[in-house]
Structure formats: structure tokens, C-alpha cells
């Protein structure tokens, strides 16, 4: 050994060793020592290994290797075959081993005598289905249709067969659906207007970038597996800039951190664009050959945008804007990761369009290591066998509906005289209250925890109280379950067959049933088949959902030749050997410069966008006006995905309670000291929480990480978030997004 | 603040009282004083140590396996402490059985007793408590031994020894009070964990209760010039409170990981 | 120098995501309240931004382990072949002396077993040629397994601020300190 580790000299080290060696020879030993070999080596042969895939609403959608012994999941790890997952999961993923066996799991179908009473009693599946089916038939009898039956479902389980929940509703007839997405719709529309689809580069190619801007995303918490690519780019000499109203964990890993005024992103991007235009750093080849409307955009910039103006609005010094704009424009390739956080505003779609334009004008669209990265659905080409179900003969529905039922609606819209009735998922409470002729009498909730995630919770509770029956399908006694009459226990990922893909990376993973379902839990499609059996027993022909299903068969039905070709596999069973990645012609999206827009080119000027009531050009749009003293941000925690995982006792070991984060100067003005309990309140409602003081948060802002805590904690940020709509989203997802970060509140010590 | 470790509080204080009684017995012997009932005295010595050892078992997750604690005499002070305390108990019980300890029995008990106190002092001076990772525990324990030893020995001492014992007890009390008051104040100017330990001690009701009780004992001795019968019981309570503070309030280094030391 | 395994905690890469801590729990299923691997946030005196830099710490598998030295029943051994400090729980009588003695809080009391326990560096995995569960799980390569005998020297340090300096026990963990980006804000 030629070197010694710092802080420990070789001599010291050897001395330590010799002392230890000599000591072991001393004759004082009364008992013989046990062997230093503690136990036998790990042996993979002791376990049955299964393939699973994390079905949560997460960029990373990890491929999981599950080690089972005696029919029990012993431990899990990331699939080593996936270069993205790379052998490791995240803090949430590793908690699955507990989640399946959690003492808090819902074990049986149960009926609650009086909502929020906690008087739950166990019933049989047959009893539960009998109540539910009779209610559905009663609605049909009373209203002459099933529009009084509503479904609210979102991203609690993205396993493809779980679209059987929507299928189950269709198999009953035309119903009321809450459509759209609270997550990312404004940005989806923006990218569709600009590029013709939401389609991002392979995240693994970020390592090739020479300049990375992470704009309103916090992958260090929400996409931990993406961080290694950003770090690799940095190691290779790229500059990393993080733009975020909060000094996030991702920001701490950057070279530069910008803390702009909230929702000023559009101005910032346009200011940079103006400077790039002035310097003549525009990629002329790209904007002339592969884009339309650049000259109009340039004219808009010259007439309406200056760096100083952008600086005034954003609070970022003009010098900084110029410096970064120049570096970004000259780096090749350069990329921007557009986070979902920055588009959760009344001007979110407009801001995303401005950032897209910045990436496009510098010629970074269609380039490996470049790109305006937002997300993609390119790997989602399944059959949606479970989703696509036929309504029973003679079903009566809504007249004049139609349009997409969300970003994952892959059904081909068929011309029919009747459709489902749709309401905006981001205004669930208002939808329930507004629904007339017929009113929503019954609500089915699956893969969703609306009382924790939907906006304006006080209103939602009132809305739920108008419902005649609420059925929740869940694994834990959430707040939504507390506001339900019947709860049905649903399987975890280890207990059902399905398949998963990501909206970020390009890997495909199978989800095998690794163990028998615990207690009486059933998968969503098994529940649908049970309901169908009961419906047909009570009223033959009232439900078309197959009554005998095998989740493995149904998984198989999701595959097609297109998927096989895209991923280069012969048969889905190949996935038992591990996840596979799509065979991409290039890691770059739009590498062939064939855009999905009406013009087939990148559209700086989108007439389609104008047709939908927005500006044709990516012009600056002002954000929401403050309605209270402080800006309120309620972003994601690292300990959960929305309302999942935080409640698990294992997670509780590391995350005991939620906090409000606020700036010390504001705290001083409000006479709040670190760890004081405070009341945060606004026009929507209020919550009580302990405050932590930190300059990670901008002055005049309050940051509280969502969401449902469980374990007796009634913490809920939706008491403070109203249902104000974002500007875009209706085009591709059926409803506009929601201004989750366009919120305001006040705070006081209690 | 960690657990008060009541079994350890009882073990250390009672064992030190027992050892102190033997020391006082030796002192009286050197001074040529007559003793009262040596059998009763040694019975109490053995009883205190026996009670202490019994209490210490409650500290173990697996008391029935306590005998194995002798396994690591070569390095572990705890093993040595167990050996010394066991030997002391055997000698004290032997002395009680033969009606009093003299000569080799007394010398043996004295040596085993001192070894017990020193081994305790080393055991409870671990690297994780910078405030105590030094000779302080041994000093504290020796002072306790003398205060309680003198106090309890007085029950069995002839009239000729009483003034001597009162003087010894008073001196030990003064020393103990000075050390006890000075130490946490010195810690305040030490490293972060020492400082936190000092603050914790100074903020501890147990600590102040022990100071108050032992100061009261000193006051009584000052006034009486002899040791009243009830005084050792009061001193014992004071020492127990102080020992509880010793175990509960001293700050562990791990508490501060991630912050400046 | 003999082979001596150690954790390299690269706080420059660490994102404080707690994956390592949960990977450990996923593998060993510690009972409630028992934590082998902690993710400690660095105080603002060390890293100027609250809860934005971390030390992921478990047992340091010290050269001269306090736990081993104070254990009265010889429940601890240090493996000759790689320096791993192993706690043999079956020998432990639950006296708590190691818990009181380790300056790094590595051994903890298991209230169900009524015995101590601590990070084993997954020696049963090492013996099978695998990485420790925590190291394998780290999404950024911030937690690494190194051999002090062969590690190329770099900017790693043994006693960073925020980590108790105890040269006598000589902890084997090495650290790389986090950096602060340029901040541009109002």
C-alpha cells in the first residue's frame, strides 16, 4: 500500500492492529470466544425471486426484485438489469416490505355505520357486493340511467390492468366520471401546442448535457434515480442550474441556484430568450428549417421583453439572466427539465411554452443530451383490455359529452349517441355539488384519496355528505375511507399480476404475483368481476364485465406486437428475466424533426393554442394575484407520494411529524420561534402545525409538504388549497389543471 | 436525557456505601477504636452490596445470564466490576458469618471494595460521555463511598469513633459538594457535548435536590458535631438523587451528530 | 495493511433521501424504535442551509471498538479478514454498556429481544460477494463500501465537523464534505 487514508497514519493503524492482536493472546480469557463468523453467508437459493414494478405516480417507476421465503416477502431490491433503477429503490419503495404486512392494512370488506363514526364492522364480500349492486340498480331504477353513479380514480395504482376500474364503470353503463389530472395538464397542453406531443428525451442521456437547468422540479426528492445523471453531467463538466422558489435538495446539489418570484418563470425564460436573440445565438438552422413562427416570436421579444423587465418580475438580477442565457445558448447540448411544480399556476401552461421556446430557439430540441424534458407516454401502447368494456345493451347516458378522460385515456373515442358525463377532477367537490339531473348519488373511489389530495377539503367534505353511498377501495383507513360507507380491501403490488411503464424513463417491467393476497384483499379487476357477478345475479345483463377472471390472463391481454417490437421482446414472459428498455433510435425525442403539430414543425406560433383560447405565441402571462399575506406552497415530501407511504410505521421512524417551513425574518415579525405551533389559515380553511425557520424558503412564503400522515394526525394541506384552475390542460386531459402553487395564506402563533 | 437507569443508581450507590463502611471499619481499626457489633456491621455491609447486586440485575435484558458478565476480564471494566463486587460480597458475607472482619478478611474486603469502586468509575466513564470520560466518575464514587460509609459506620461505632467519623463524613461532604458544584460549571466551558451536559446537570431538579440534601447533612454535622442516626438515610437519598442525575442528565455524543462539537 | 472495510459517506453526493436507512430496515426488519442507520442532517453551523446536507451513519466498524472493549460477555468480535465488527446477539445479556460507550450511537437496545444490536455491515452479504443493503440502495453512489487498505487517497476525511472526534476508538468511516452552490435570490 503506497498511501494511507487521511486522518489515520499507517503507524497508528498497525499499532492498533498489533495491540488488538496481542490482547487476543492474553491469558485472562475465561471463556473461549465464539467464532468471529457470525452466521452463514447469504444464499439467493434460499429465496424465490419475483419481478415487481412500483405502480405509484412517480417518474422513477422502479423495477423491483422481490425475495420470497415461505410465502412471505422477506426483502426487496431494485432490479439490477435496469440501468435507471440500478439495483436500488427509494425510501418509499423499500417500505413496501412493511406495507403489505402492515398491521394498519384493511383486511376485509367493511361497512361503516355513520360516516366518520369509526364504527366499522366486517362483512363478507358477498354482503358488500349485494349492498353495492342493489344501490346501483336502485339508481338505475330511479333515474333511468346510471349517471348518478360517479367514479373518481387517479394515480394511486398505475398498473395497467387497474384501468379495469374505468372498465368496470363502462361495463355497468354510462356513468359520471371525474376527468383530467391535478398533476401536469397545463404542461401537457403546452408541449402539445409547441411540439405536437409530450415527449421527453431518455433521462439517462442527461449525463451528456453540457448545461442542465432543472426548472421547478426536485428530483432529489421526487426522482432520486435521475440525480445520478445530473451528477454525472456535472462531473463531466456541465453546469447545473436549479430554478425553484424553494432552496430544494436538488438546488443544494447545483452549481447555481436561482430563487425567482413564484410564477414568474415565463418572464425569466423570455428574458433569457431576448438576450440570446440580441447576441445572435439563435440556432438559425433549426428555427428556419424545423419551426414555424420564430420571426413573430422574435418580434414579440424585441417589442415586449427586456432582460431588465424579466429581472424586475422575477427578482433575478439582469446580469445573472444574461450570463446564464449566454452560457445556456452556447453549451451544446443544453437541456431543461421542466418540473410539474412550475406549471401548477394560472399561468403554468404559458410558462411552459416560454421555456419550450428557449430550448427550441437554441436548437436543443431533438438533440441527445438536450430537450425540453417534461414527460412522455410513448411506452404506454398497451391494449387497455381491462379499460375498454362495452356498456350493457340499452344503456342510457349523457348527450353531447366526449373528449379525453385524462392523459392516460387511450381509448379511441367512438362516435356514440350517449357518453359518460364528465366533471373536472380538480373541482371534485364543486362537481358533486353542481351535478343535477341526475345528482351524483353514489361515488366509487379507487386508486385515489380525494379527501387528502383534492382541493378545498372543507368543501369536499360537505360534498361527500350529499352522497347517498360512497364506496372506497383502499389498503388503509384514509380520510377518504373515513368519509365512506363501504371499504373494499385491495391488493398491493406483490399480490396481483400487472405491468408498468414510466412517464419519464423508457423501461418496461412486469409485476408478478409474488405472494397470495393477504387477508381478503382483491385486485381492482377481481373486484369488478365480483360486482359483475352480483349485478347479473340480481338483474341479468346489467353488467358486461367478465365474471371469472385471472389477473395473469388479463395481464397477458394487455400486450401486443407493437409493445413487443418497441421493447425488443418476443413475449411478455421474457420480462420475468428482468425489465427491458425500449429500443430507441435515438435517446432524443423528436430526433427526426417530425413534430406532431399541425404544421409538422416546432410551433413558436401555435394557431391550435389560439383556437383553445390562449395566445398563439408563448407570450408572458401574469400569475394569480395574491389573496392573502403569504405565498403558500404545498409541494411533495421525500417520505411519500401524495398520500401514500407517510402513514406506514416504518416511515414514521424517519419522519415523525409534518412541519411548516418559513423565513426567520417573517417568523420574527409574527413572533414565531423555531418549533412553535402555529395556525396557518386562509379563505379555504386552516391547519395547526409546528414551524421550522429556514432561509431555504423565500421571505413571505410558507412551505408545507403534503400530505396525509395517518397515525392519528389530522394534518391536511388541502385545508388551505382552493380549486382555482390552471390556464391549460383541457385540450389533452379533458380538464384544465389546478393552481396548486397559486395559493396564499396567513400564519400566527397559537 | 436518557433513562435514569435506576438499577445502576441503586447498585453503584449501595455498593459504594458498603465499600465505604469497610473503609471506615479499617480506619477505626487503625485508630485503635473499639467497635460495637461487628457481626451486625458486616451483615449490613454484605446486605448493602447484596442488595446493590440484586438491583443491578434488573438492569439486564437477561438477568439469568448475568454470570456470563465475567467473560471479558481482559478488557471490559464491567467484567472486572462484577468480579470485584462479587468478591467483596463473598468476603463481607464471610466476615459477617465469622462475626466480624479482621486481618486478611478486612484487607481483602477493602481491596475488593476499592477495586469495585474504581471499576465502577472506569465502567461509567465511557468515550461516549466526554463529560465523564475521565477520572470524575471514580472521584464521585469514592466521595460517595466515604460519605455513606462514615454515616452508616456510625451506627456501629463506639463513642470513641463518633467524632472521627463525623469529621470524615463532613470533610467528604464538603469535598463532594465542591466537586459537584464545580464540575458542571467547568463543563460549560468545554466542548459542545460537555457544555450540554453541564447545562443539563445545572437544569436538573435531581441534581439540585442532591446538592440541597447533602448540604443539609453538612449543616447538621456542623451543628451536632456527631452523626445523628437518621443522617445516613438522608445522605443516601441525596446520593441516590445525585446518581440519578449522573446517569440521566449527562449528554451522549451521539445526540449531537451533525452539529458542531 | 490488512483489508479493512469501511463506509465512505460522500455528502457531496448525498441527497438525504433516507433510501439507505429504509433499505436497511427492508432487509433486517428492525423492531419499532430500533434504527441501525441514521441520516443525520448537518446543522447550520456546518452546512449553511437547514436539512440540506447529511451524514448517513451506522456502525463505523472502528479499529478499536468501544463496544467490543466494554462488552462484559464478549458479544462483539472484529473479523480478522475484513475488520467488520460483529455483534453476536445470542451472547448479549442486554447490559447496555456498549450503548452507553459507543460515541457514535451505533449499538441500540432492542426492547423485544432485550439485547443490543447494531449494523453488521451485512457481513452475510459480503461473504456472498454482495454489497451491504444500504450501499447497494444508494441512488447517487453517496454511500460506498471501501477497503481502507486499498482506497486511493482523495479528499476524504475521518473527523469532519459534526462527527465526534474520538481517535482512540478510531472509526473507519470516511467522509467527503458537501458543497454549497452559488445562490441568487432576492
Mean pLDDT of chain B: 94
Number of DSSP strands of chain C? 10
For this structure, what is the CATH class of chain B?
Mainly Alpha
Output the radius of gyration of chain B: 18 Å
Classify the helix fraction of chain B into a percent range.
over 70%
Give the helices and strands of chain B as they follow along the chain.
HHHHHHHHH
Structural class estimated from helices and strands of chain B: mainly alpha
* Uncertain ranges of chain B: none
The chain pair with the largest interface is:
A-C, 82 and 69 residues
Globally, the shape of chain C reads: globular
Distance between the termini of chain B: 18 Å
Q: What do we call the CATH topology of chain B?
A: Formate dehydrogenase/DMSO reductase fold
Helical fraction of chain C equals: 10-25%
CATH superfamily of chain B: Formate dehydrogenase/DMSO reductase domain
- From the structure provided, what is the oligomeric state, counting identical versus distinct chains? heterotrimer
Count of the separate structural domains of chain B: 1
